Task: inverse folding
């Protein structure tokens, strides 16, 4: 490179600076919008994923409760509803639910949250392996109700989350690994 | 000078990075699309297993002069390190061995046993909590038979030492490897159990959270345990220092195992079960492994149906086979038990005449709806566990080995400092105290496993097996029919869409299908009275079969490994 052309150097720095800045802006969580305590529930009975969400919330020092088959009544005294999106046939079987019953439960929960003015944080922590026909139905139906979403990047390879979030103006935070969600969680909840 | 130092540092860093990298299997390429049918090729020997590092361990054993039994045990050990959620020294299994020199087939049964304190009503009495007591508490743990079985096989039919067979497993456990998406998903599915029983600090979690694909999984405690076992012999597990750790871990979770239970454990060698299908002879373990028994029933029933005319996975084909499965499950509930204690009418169940009786009850125009014998508690339909290994060596010896710790990650209980998971095979007992499969002292619970060797005109043609709990015999049946009746290649037969149905309590249950079966077919099945339950397109619910086919005219071995799990083949 010809080091005697300062204008070009400045332009190059500006160019890469702009790219880095946009990347950071996309990854920087918005200011705190959620309040504690929060109720964590699964949407699709991938109960391991819901348990992970609870652990992440605890590591972010949030007051969280897990109810895998929570209903509207469980929203009493809660200020945020965390919907962990992901279908598991095994989980549905263990919970004694079928697909329709599970969707009905979530619909009722979301409606109650709306009625109580409780914002919804959607999470998808299963990655690419937790995508499939039923999970996608759940994402398509319930993600639009969220105020924000935190997901594993590997679960968004086809851009489904990006597409829905863009269309509904939902801030989307993508993380590489589950544990990377702790920091954004700390920032989006009021203390 | 500075430049030279910088170059030196870069070279040193590169060398360090390469030398510290976790091992990757050195196997020849696998298909880019993991679901595309792909037959592994070998000329002298072949190993198929559910993890590349395990298949490689078996292949290296064959290349270093070991026979099929040596390679099977090396692969089995390696699976404990590389696929620890499905099998390991805290579990048990069944091995079918074909000895080329004598053309003899034999079976080694190293299934877990109930502790001496087991009682018929021990689970029923737990009421609504019985699932937890059968699967996640100390009462779920059967006395492990795995090490005793591997050791028996090596001593009687192998040529290598326990230390040689375990060497690669120790290396894998110590160095670690990047986990696959399959490992990660199963780890997430079983997270609650692992948190509860193994704790946040367990190596089976990554800093207290499930592993993501690509994270490196290491198990130095397992490596140390295996080192001690090979140095001091398996007695250290059954009678020595490890035994009290097992008992303490089981009892800390309200279990009933004693040191005497462990000390008394012995594997047994038995004659295989035998049956025929369209000119082929099939050898499989007898009960308490019931996969072979019910597979033979299914094939007997299907033998005189016009399967080719109906077409593979046509409405008629799926309807008739599903109905056959439901009748067989009624028998399963009624008769299955440990033959050391319970008389099972094996001759009648395996008779072609009995198959005709069942066939006559199956109507072409609708599902029967009720299936006879539902006398005992319903068959459970939930497990996706276990693992299968197949090996053929240069002399033509064959091993079909299915082994398990039952549910993925077993009970999630790890004896302190040992790194291995304890099984939950007591869950395979019935909760009904009157069932022939009720838990009783020293009995082996009924197993769904069915490793098999298939022979044509007196010469081995195929070895096959699968995990998948109750889906094992229906999946093996579909694969064999795909090969024999529909002329598919081995892996094409394995990857083809599967279905499963059963009866429980004499009543019809859902027909589970992979949605690759087209909607018009499913619509036709609905009109016949089947309630369809859609699974994933390649769902490990239906197992993860591995097989080896011998094509004598071409002088090659074909290995088939199921993409529903991480199966691979390794031939040379």
Result:
């Amino acid at each position: 490179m010809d080091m005697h052309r300062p204008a070009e150097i400045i332009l190059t720095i500006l160019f890469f600076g702009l790219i880095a800045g946009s990347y950071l802006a996309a990854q920087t969580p918005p200011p705190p919008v959620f309040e504690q305590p929060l109720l964590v529930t699964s949407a699709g009975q991938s109960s391991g994923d819901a348990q992970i969400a609870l652990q992440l919330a605890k590591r972010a020092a949030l007051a969280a409760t897990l109810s895998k088959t929570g209903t509207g009544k469980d929203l009493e005294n809660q200020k945020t509803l965390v919907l962990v999106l992901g279908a598991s046939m095994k989980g549905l079987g263990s919970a004694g639910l079928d697909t329709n019953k599970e969707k009905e439960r979530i619909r009722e929960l979301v409606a109650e949250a709306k009625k109580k003015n409780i914002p919804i944080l959607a999470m998808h922590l299963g990655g690419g392996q937790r995508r499939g026909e039923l999970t996608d139905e759940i994402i398509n139906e319930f993600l639009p109700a969220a105020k924000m979403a935190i997901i594993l990047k590997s679960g968004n390879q086809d851009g489904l989350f990006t597409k829905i979030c863009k269309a509904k103006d939902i801030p989307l935070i993508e993380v590489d690994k589950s544990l990377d969600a702790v920091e954004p969680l700390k920032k989006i909840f009021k203390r | 000078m500075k430049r030279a130092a910088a170059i030196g540092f870069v070279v040193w860093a590169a060398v360090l990075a390469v030398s510290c990298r976790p091992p990757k299997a050195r196997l020849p390429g696998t298909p880019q699309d993991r679901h595309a049918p792909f037959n592994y090729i070998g000329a002298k020997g072949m190993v198929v297993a559910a993890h590349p590092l395990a298949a490689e361990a078996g292949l290296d054993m064959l290349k270093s002069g070991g026979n099929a039994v040596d390679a099977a045990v090396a692969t089995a050990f390696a699976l404990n390190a590389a696929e620890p959620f499905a099998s390991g020294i805290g579990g048990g299994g069944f091995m079918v061995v074909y000895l080329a020199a004598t053309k003899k087939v034999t079976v080694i049964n190293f299934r877990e046993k109930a502790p001496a304190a087991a009682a018929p009503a021990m689970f029923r009495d737990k009421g609504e909590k019985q699932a937890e007591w059968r699967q996640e508490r100390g009462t779920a743990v059967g006395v492990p038979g795995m090490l005793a079985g591997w050791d028996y096989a090596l001593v009687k039919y192998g040529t290598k030492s326990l230390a040689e067979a375990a060497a690669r497993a120790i290396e894998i456990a110590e160095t670690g490897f990047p986990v696959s998406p399959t490992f990660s998903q199963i780890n997430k599915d079983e997270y609650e159990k692992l948190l509860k029983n193994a704790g946040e600090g367990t190596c089976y979690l990554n800093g207290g959270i499930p592993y993501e694909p690509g994270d490196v999984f290491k198990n130095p405690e397992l490596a140390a345990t295996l080192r001690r076992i090979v140095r001091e012999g398996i007695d250290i597990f059954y009678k020595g220092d490890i035994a009290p750790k097992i008992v303490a871990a089981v009892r800390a979770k309200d279990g009933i195992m004693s040191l005497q239970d462990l000390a008394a454990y012995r594997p047994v060698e038995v004659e295989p079960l035998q049956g025929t299908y369209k000119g082929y002879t099939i050898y499989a373990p007898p009960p308490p492994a019931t996969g072979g028994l019910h597979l033979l029933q299914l094939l007997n029933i299907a033998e005189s149906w016009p399967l080719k005319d109906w077409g593979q996975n046509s409405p008629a084909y799926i309807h008739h086979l599903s109905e056959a499965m439901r009748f067989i499950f009624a028998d399963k509930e009624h008769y299955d038990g440990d033959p050391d204690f319970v008389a099972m009418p094996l001759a009648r169940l395996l008779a072609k005449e009995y198959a005709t009786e069942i066939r006559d009850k199956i109507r072409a125009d609708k599902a029967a709806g009720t299936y006879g014998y539902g006398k005992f508690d319903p068959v459970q339909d939930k497990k996706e566990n276990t693992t299968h290994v197949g090996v053929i060596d240069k002399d033509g010896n064959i091993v079909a080995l299915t082994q398990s710790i039952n549910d993925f990650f077993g009970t999630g209980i790890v004896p302190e400092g040992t790194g291995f998971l304890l099984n939950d095979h007591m869950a395979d007992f019935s909760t009904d105290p009157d069932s022939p499969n009720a838990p009783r002292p020293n009995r082996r619970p009924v197993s769904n496993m069915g490793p098999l060797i298939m022979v044509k005109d007196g010469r081995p043609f195929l070895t096959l097996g699968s995990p998948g709990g109750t889906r094992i015999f229906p999946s093996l049946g579909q694969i064999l029919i795909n090969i024999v009746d529909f002329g598919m290649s081995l892996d094409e037969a394995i990857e083809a869409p599967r279905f499963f149905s059963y009866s429980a309590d004499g009543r019809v249950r859902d027909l589970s299908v992979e949605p690759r079966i087209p909607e018009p077919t499913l619509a036709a099945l609905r009109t016949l009275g089947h309630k369809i339950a859609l699974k994933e397109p390649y769902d490990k619910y239906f197992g993860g079969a591995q097989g080896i086919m011998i094509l004598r005219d071409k002088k090659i071995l074909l290995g088939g490994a199921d993409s529903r799990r991480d199966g691979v083949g390794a031939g040379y």
